[in-house]
Amino acid sequence: MQNTFSLLFYPKRNDIDNDGNTPIYLRITVNGKRSEISINRKIPLNKWNSIAGKIKGTTSDVRELNQYMHSIKYRVQSIYNNLIREGRPITPITIKNRFLGKDVKVKMILQIFQQHNDKVEKLVGKDFAAGTLERYKTARKHLKNYIIKEYKVEDIPVTDVNHEFITGFEFYLKTTRNCAHNSAIKYVTNFKKIIRIAYANDWIDKDPFVHWKGKLKIVDREFLTEKELQTLVEKEFGVQRLNQVKDIFVFCCFTGLAYADVKKLSKNNIIYGPTGDKWIKINRSKTDTRSKIPILSIPEAILEKYAESPELMNGDRLLPVLSNQKMNAYLKEIADLCSIEKNLTFHLARHTFATTVTLTNGVPIESVSKMLGHRSLTTTQHYAKIIDKKVSDDMKAIKDKLSKYSSI
What we know:
3-stranded antiparallel β-sheet; 408 residues; hpI Integrase, Chain A
């Protein structure tokens, strides 16, 4: 892809010393992006010929300085030509660093990102969930496409990343990629980790994210109402695969388990609680936090239903969970057949547990938080929206107590 490239010498007019001299800089411009190099020479400002881009005069000192500037321009032009021949990414910073002898230390941003993702992949199931790896892979793909679109190169040095680059990436995600605000912020935050790695390893001198503030917007999460949940529980389909998906979805509505956790649920995760009833004890795949949930009658019946399932006989898994993609596809069919107009996805079961099954029925938010395996109540509050019926019931409970004030 053809680059636009230009060089311009100019005096720094806002940096005049006490003797009236100003330093000369060379501006390198590639595809509209700039960097500057000081040539470590000063001249009186009135000696500069802005049209010719050199010093006025014919004295030996002037001729020598103009020749020196010409030699610098020739060296920079040669660096540009060499980078083209080498197939290297061409930016003002790469040219400047090679001129200053620093290019051998430059790390490329997508290269660092890929090295990070390779390490995460090897730690999936230990320190990271599979979904975390996928998010980092997607973030890198978006970053690569942004660099190609905006900078016309395959990769850039990490030293080129500044506040303008970061805000440009966020804008690209929201416009070109049409990402929602929260999705865009999460992808930029994934990228932020890569920059922090570069900063910690002294590959860059400062953290360009210092002035970037990415705030997530509070989202009202959908959940099934008590009536919708009851409809789903009682519904029987003529197709076995839909009954199977419905059962597992309902199981999660009454346990709060996420897809990754119900998929790996095994006999080892079933324990007995203080009163002898069955509980689920599991470390969440996403955060590795411990979650302990009493098993209610409906999920217990579902476990018993699949206890002798042929596809589970050769392992210790408790439920025949399909891929997340298939589960969500079949849930769309189930929603239509049950006349549920909401966007039925597997994660909506977790929201339903937090809101309809627990909080609405008076379970304290602290207990809900522990069962969901959250590290803070703030996270639980994002999931659990206390509906109007609960507020009404709470106020009704104190209505009689306050009746004595009615005569005031």
